Amino acid sequence: MRISTMAQQATRTLRIGMVPADGIGREVLPAAQRVMTAAPGIPPLEFVHLDAGFEYFQQHGTSLPQATIETLKGSCDGAMFGSVSSPSHKVEGYTSPIVRLRKELNLYANIRPVTGPVLPGSIYTKPVDMVTIRENTECLYVKQESLEDGPDGKVARAVRLITEKASTRIGRKALEIARARAALRNETGSTTPTKVTICHKSNVLSVTDGLFRTSVRSVYDADKPENGGEGRYARVGLDEQLVDSMVYRMFREPEVFDVIVAPNLYGDIISDGAAALAGSLGLVSSVNASDDFFMGEPVHGSAPDIAGQDKANPIASIRSAALMLEYMGFSEPALAIYKAVDEVLMDGKTLTPDLPGGTATTSQVVDAVLNAL
Ligand code: NAI
Ligand code: MG
């Protein structure tokens, strides 16, 4: 379903596929569902529960049943994914359902904003407002690994796939997101400059990261009027940063980053790092995007250390739901949810224990967000 058509048919019931998977995914997805349902301006919603996960694999021999893929592809307008407990050792026949879903649904971009009020106890004291656009389909996550016996012991190898097509596509996505940010800043009179920073390590990996870097740059350069382009990105700057020093700068001076575009693995790592700036992984949202389908997903994992204790922070999932709605074209309920969440955070009375001073349960935070709505 195309986004514009969807927003026009706002009174039609939207079908949202819910894939809680494992661990705290089962606690935070119902939380997001409660908040979505109550948001002002939301069309009627129908939630479809879908199976996936490591526990499902242990019971049924697959981590992602075909029925889940087909329902998402065939009859859902949007989706939410919780979190999966992927083991750190190889388990024969197991493959991560989220990595596969991103490929099956062609969700080639993972958009991860880190923004919001500065919380007490946050390691950074100025407001952070950055978004990581992570390539979602290739890099080392193609998972072509091999292990063999060599003369000096075992030898493991992994393929790192970077293509011009996927790098160009993610570069364009990042630039389009930057363009929308620049337009919004212009409208609201903000003087904050908008730019895209390419994250890479092409001083060492000059072939793979080199291709990523030049592909993104080509989209930007081709758009310039002097090169015959439309000038769509005239308000957007472009620079680059090596991934290691990016981590350093992100913690020293996060205000220098705005939109970051990164290959899959670096994007995964730096966005968890950026989450620390926000105060907790339990606050940071993402949406997996193709050009016309969106799946919200908290950045955190299944948190087995706190699962089943009603203390998982539901805000990452609640914000991910809002992000999904925003990208689907429903900005009114999305903005209302962001605002309600910010109010609860700034109020500081109802926080889960991952945040300084927090003692509230998952459900108490949801109640507070519903009240603020
Ligand atoms: P994690 O994100 O699950 O947990 C890291 C730390 O953050 C833990 O101390 C946890 O308690 C805390 N945390 C995370 N989310 C929280 C929340 N909402 N509220 C409060 N505290 C929260 O990462 P970890 O421990 O490295 O991985 C655990 C499992 O999750 C692994 O099996 C891993 O494969 C999986 N994982 C799944 C992801 C996904 O489904 N997309 C992403 C990352 C990891
Ligand atoms: Mg991760």
UniProtKB/TrEMBL annotation:
Gene3D superfamilies in the record: Isopropylmalate Dehydrogenase
Classification via InterPro entries: IsoCit/isopropylmalate_DH_CS, IsoPropMal-DH-like_dom
Gene Ontology biological-process entries: isocitrate metabolic process; lysine biosynthetic process; tricarboxylic acid cycle
Stretches assigned to the Isopropylmalate dehydrogenase-like domain: 15-369
Alphabetical list of SMART domains matching this protein: Iso_dh
Gene Ontology CC annotation, any one: mitochondrion
Signal peptide coordinates: none
Top-rank lineage group of the source organism: Eukaryota
Keywords: Magnesium
Any one GO molecular-function label of the UniProt entry: homoisocitrate dehydrogenase activity
PANTHER family in the record: DECARBOXYLATING DEHYDROGENASES-ISOCITRATE, ISOPROPYLMALATE, TARTRATE (PTHR11835), HOMOISOCITRATE DEHYDROGENASE, MITOCHONDRIAL (PTHR11835:SF48)
Assigned protein family: Belongs to the isocitrate and isopropylmalate dehydrogenases family.
Protein name: Lys12p
Species of the source: Malassezia vespertilionis
Gene it is expressed from: LYS12
